[in-house]
Sequence to fold (204 residues):
Amino acid sequence: MQEIVPGLIYAPGYLSREEQQELIDDLRAAVKAAPLFTPRMPRTGKEFSVRMTNCGTLGWVSDRERGYRYQSTHPETGAPWPAIPRLAMRAWEDLSPYKHPPEACLVNFYDASARMGLHQDRDEEDFDAPVVSLSLGDTCLFRIGGTERKSSTKSFKLQSGDAMMLSGAARLAFHGVDRIMGGTSTLLPQGGRLNLTLRRVTKA
Ligand code: SIN
Ligand code: MN
Fold:
């Protein structure tokens, strides 16, 4: 494990190829139950380039009218979210020092042209709980900054099977995905990148 900036813990190759395949199989079942949706920015209604779904008791959603929030049901089907996959729960247990289990597992799907602008994860109640991330499929260039938008940033690659945690001083750091490097993984037959982020939403 490496600490890339204080509080950003990076565990390259956390999942074996077999484990990555198990997680993909679980995510395929999850996406059948909770289809990917396209979130929209608050107020402007601009579409994200990333498509999303969630697992867990709570899921992160965003739309024009009600903005960023967590809710217990899928915004289009109204159904509860599927369970968090086994290996995602294990990643939280292995990496997170937080005593309580995660409630949300946000699943982001990036096609070759998708990206995610610099933002903070701050829709949760307890910033003592870290955010644990798993990457699958194509490599991305991930950017990490500080707790202010104007802080300096640095970038590094996240590859299929890598785990990462934003904790402590990095819990509220600005971060984003600059670009997807198409054709860098054979895990997803159609290409693209999946990222899972595990979050504790409510104060325990
Ligand atoms: C996120 O910040 O929600 C996703 C980060 C990533 O895709 O690695
Ligand atoms: Mn984020």
Remarks:
- The pocket of succinic acid (ligand 1) is lined by residues 106, 108, 116, 133, 142, 158, 175, 177, 195, 197 (CB under 6 Å).
- The longest strand covers residues 104-110.
- The two ends are 28 Å apart (CA to CA).
